[in-house]
Amino acid sequence: MRWGILTSGGDAPGMNAAIRAFVRLAIGEGDEVLGIERGFEGMAEGLARLLTVSSVADILMRGGTMLRTSRYRAFEDPSTRERAFEWARQQQLAGLVVLGGNGSLAGAVHIAERGLPVVGIPSSIDGDVPGTDYTLGFDTAVNNITASMDKIRDTASAHERIFVVEVMGNRSGQLAVAAGLAGGAEAVIVPEIAPDYHAIARRLDETYARGKRHSFLVVAEGAARAADVAEEMRSLTGHEVKTVVLGHTQRGGPPSAHDRIMAALFAEEALRCLRDGNPSAMMALSKSQVVAVPLDVVSRQQAGLNVGWMALAERLAR
Ligand SMILES: Nc1ncnc2c1ncn2[C@@H]1O[C@H](COP(=O)(O)OP(=O)(O)OP(=O)(O)O)[C@@H](O)[C@H]1O
Ligand SMILES: O=P(O)(O)OC[C@H]1O[C@](O)(CO)[C@@H](O)[C@@H]1O
Measuring from each residue's beta carbon to the nearest atom of ligand 2, which residues come in under 6 Å? Predict the structure, then answer.
C-alpha cells in the first residue's frame, strides 16, 4: 500500500522523528511512503517524493521538518482541496498522515470527508489540540523556554530586576503555564484569563520585601506584549523591569527524548490505524496511553488550560 505523509502549520520538534518512524515502520510492512512537501501546498501542487529507509536517516535528532511546512490559506478553498484530492487519487495514495496543529487537522478533516483515509498526529509547540493530552513539540519548547529562563535568572538576580518573558501561544496559554511552572515564574499571563495587574504587582512587592532578588512574569504572546506588561509593572511597582521575547528560539533545536518517544508511538499507532482501514482518526495521548480518537474532535472541542498548574506556579514562586 502507498501512504502519503505531510507536515503543516508551525514546525514542531519531533516532526522529523515521526516521519522517520512512520517511513521505517511502513517500509518494514512492505508499504511505500510518499513524502509531500510544504504541507497542503504540496498536495495541491504535486510536490512529493518517495521516501526510503536511508532518506530519513539522521533526522531523528533534528528540529524543523525535512518535508518543510507551510501556512497555505488556499486550502480553505474547496476547489484547491479538490485539486489536492485528485492528485492524491492519481498518486494512488491509500491514506494520508497529517502532522500539524488545530488548523492542519481541520484541513485533514476535509480530506477525510472527501473519502481518503487520514490519520492526524497532533504536532504543535502550543500544546493546544483538543482530544489529546499531548502534542508533539510541546516538551521541547517548554525545555527551551526553561533553559532560557535559567540563564536570565543569573543576570536578573545580579541586578535585582523583574523580567517579563514573552513566549509563543497565540490563542492558548498552555505553553506559558508549563514554562511558568518549570521556570519558577511569579505569575503567568494567558489569553484565556484577563490578568489582574494590581494583584501581580502586590505579589511582586511582597516577594521583594521578603528579600527576593529576581522575579519572572511569563506572558503568552496572545495575551499581551511583553513591553506593555513591563510598562504596567514599572508603573505599579517602581521596580526595574526588563523584557525578553523568546520568539522562534522556542521552536527550534533537537527534540527532547520525550518528543522522540511520543513521535515513535504516534507513528506506530498511525500506521496501525491506516492498515486496519480506519477512515479517519487522530492520534492522542489519553491516560498515558496512545489511542485513536475521532479526527473531527478538533472542530468539536476546545483544548483546556491547566489552571491548576498556573495556580501552583504562583504558590511556589516565593
Ligand atoms: N478550516 C480549514 N480548512 C482547510 N484547511 C485548513 C483550515 N484551517 C487550516 N487549514 C490548513 O492548515 C494550515 C495550517 O493551519 P494553521 O496555520 O492554523 O497551523 P496549525 O496546524 O494550527 O499549527 P500551529 O499550531 O503551528 O498554529 C493552513 O495554512 C491551511 O493550509
Ligand atoms: O512562525 P509563525 O508562522 O510566525 O507562527 C507563529 C505561531 O506558531 C506557533 O508557534 C505554533 O506553532 C504559535 O505559538 C505562534 O503564534
Answer: 10, 71, 124-126, 168-170, 221, 251
